[in-house]
UniProtKB/TrEMBL annotation:
InterPro entries xref list: BtrH_N, DUF4872
Domain (Butirosin biosynthesis protein H N-terminal): residue spans on this chain: 14-142
Domain DUF4872: 155-324
Natural source organism: Streptomyces demainii
Domain of life: Bacteria
Name under which the protein is recorded: DUF4872 domain-containing protein
Length: 327
């Protein structure tokens, strides 16, 4: 058995921030989950649909692992990433740091993890691994998934080897803090501006504020878009509210990040941004409830109301990000 000592196996709301929290606390950096998310410029929006998809997907954050790259760059941390097509090399990339006393982050497909009771493929799931024995791997996942958990080595290998949307090639990573890491307070404004600039200037129309406006036009058609609205629409609402988003499609996390920042930096723009994201978070929760109600009742009026709220959300979030971009 190999086990990293003194692991703080604190499960948070979102998988990537949970893993980052484990790795950073091991390096002596203990940041709140909203601060991890915000310093990683994690907030975004995508409306994703294609002929190959059974139903559209609404995403509220940057793509998997981009948050990790953003956060470590912002704080001046050393990020060492391993990717390989070889299962043998992939195991070596994990076992070696654990044997040396360092936890490892993994990107994998949650479908194959023993402790996941909801079986759905998601190749962008991220966990921290801190130990193993002859049969099992010892992981830290989100609080709703159990925090400190274990899965079979065979299941872990399948999860890491899976190919498909958002998967990586057995990706693993470690984080090392230099002797004088950048103070988190000094990196707040650059991280906020980076997030705002990306949101306000998306390269394509289904991202950022333009993506929310697209969702406003498309969501009212969802009863016709779905072959099984009683299943698809409640699932979409659950993904927005409870599937590792922290609620309100990650807007609760960003709202709380801005509130924490406003305690550290005296800025009217920060306070305005926080007020607007508090409004946006409440509206997203209402949208999710309306989408679920439409699926359960078959009444399209719920989706018409959701579309109207999404138009308002595009305006509110655009105003918030324009204000924050001026920090």
């Amino acid at each position: 058995m190999a086990m990293v000592k003194d692991i703080d196996a604190r499960g948070m709301q979102h998988c990537e921030t949970t893993a980052l929290g484990v790795l950073l606390r091991h390096e002596g950096l203990d940041l709140s989950e909203p601060m991890l998310f915000g310093l990683g410029s994690g907030l975004s929006f995508v409306y994703w649909d294609s002929k190959a998809m059974g139903f559209p997907f609404l995403g509220g954050r940057v793509k998997p692992f981009e948050l990790t790259r953003n956060l470590t760059a912002a704080l001046g941390l050393d990020l060492l990433v391993g990717e390989t097509t070889s299962p043998r090399k992939a195991w070596q990339n994990v076992a070696a740091p654990i044997d040396a006393g360092r936890p490892v982050g993994l990107q994998l497909d949650s479908y194959h993890l023993d402790y996941f009771t909801t079986k759905a493929h998601f190749g962008g799931h991220i966990v921290a691994m801190y130990g193993y024995d002859e049969q099992d791997a010892y992981l830290v996942d989100t609080g709703p998934q159990g925090g400190a958990v274990s899965t079979s080595l065979a299941g872990l290998a399948r999860a890491r080897a899976e190919r498909g949307p958002m998967t990586a090639r057995h990706r693993s990573f470690t984080i090392t803090a230099p002797g004088d890491p950048a103070p988190p307070r000094d990196r707040i404004i650059p991280a906020i501006r980076r997030c705002a600039d990306a949101f306000l200037n998306p390269p394509i129309g289904n991202l950022g504020h333009r993506g929310i406006e697209k969702a406003a036009r498309e969501v009212p058609k969802w009863l016709r878009r779905s072959d099984d609205p009683g299943e698809d629409l409640p699932r979409a609402a659950t993904l927005m509210e409870r599937a590792g988003t922290g609620g309100a499609l990650f807007r609760n996390l960003y709202r709380d990040f801005l509130a924490e920042c406003a305690q550290l930096i005296d800025s009217s723009r920060l306070r305005t941004g926080h007020t607007l994201y508090a409004e946006a978070a409440a509206l997203w929760t209402q949208v999710a409830a309306l989408v679920a109600a439409a699926g359960e009742s078959g009444d399209a009026e719920h989706l018409v109301r959701a579309g109207a709220l999404l138009h308002e959300l595009s305006r509110v979030e655009r105003e918030a990000m324009r204000t924050l971009s001026l920090l």
